[in-house]
Design goal:
This protein is mostly helical and 188 residues long. Helix content is 56%, strand content 8%. The protein contains 5 helices and 5 strands. A 3-stranded antiparallel sheet has the order 4-3-5. Helix 4 runs antiparallel to helix 5. It is elongated.
């Protein structure tokens, strides 16, 4: 006889799936509906625009080939990490968009709850890249490529800052009657 095994940790959300009579899995967990001050479509458009702009600004900064800029550790390490963070933010916004409204609880936890952390990390790393680039430009002599690098990293920082402001206005409320769950009837 097989025992029902409850998962803990990273894959705990799998406990919310149950087999129906046909053998397919149905999600029986909670759902959340968007209830922010900005309409959902407009909020997502802002999230997409800001996250893609930040990624493009960071990638554009990487195209600047200032003499020595690519060999300087205090510029290169935060810059590379900021690029990874920006890709993570774009991926998370894409997953949020693809799952529609209402969101399942585990998707909400993996997207909406993680986006401020990923955006904040990208924000800090872009700022460190800009500061490192500015220090390098001052000590090594400014040229137009070093200045453009600093400006593009600063633009990525500003985009992530604006993204955080949009995220503060996004509110998600738990739905009372979740789709896919059988209605409970009073038998009094």
């Amino acid at each position: 006889m097989a025992k029902d095994k409850k998962r803990r940790g990273r894959r705990a959300y799998l406990n919310d799936f149950e087999r129906d009579l046909t053998g397919s899995y149905q999600y029986r967990g909670d759902h959340y509906r968007y209830a922010g001050s900005l309409p959902r479509g407009r909020a997502l458009a802002w999230l997409w625009g800001l996250s893609v702009f930040a990624l493009a600004a960071l990638l554009g900064a990487g195209m600047m080939d200032g003499p020595g800029l690519g060999r300087c550790g205090y510029v290169l390490i935060p810059y590379a990490a900021a690029c990874v963070g920006a890709v993570s933010v774009v991926y998370t916004v894409g997953r949020l968009t693809a799952n529609g409204d209402p969101l399942r609880e585990y998707v909400l936890e993996q997207t909406v709850r993680k986006l401020p952390v990923r955006g904040g990390l990208t924000l800090v790393l872009a700022a460190l890249s800009a500061v490192g680039g500015a220090v390098f430009a001052v000590t090594g002599g400014p040229n137009w490529e070093r200045v453009v690098f600093v400006l593009l990293c600063t633009a990525a920082f500003a985009a992530q800052l604006a993204l955080r402001r949009i995220l503060r206005g996004m509110d998600w409320q738990k739905m009372e009657d979740t789709p896919g769950q059988p209605e409970e009837k009073d038998t009094d």
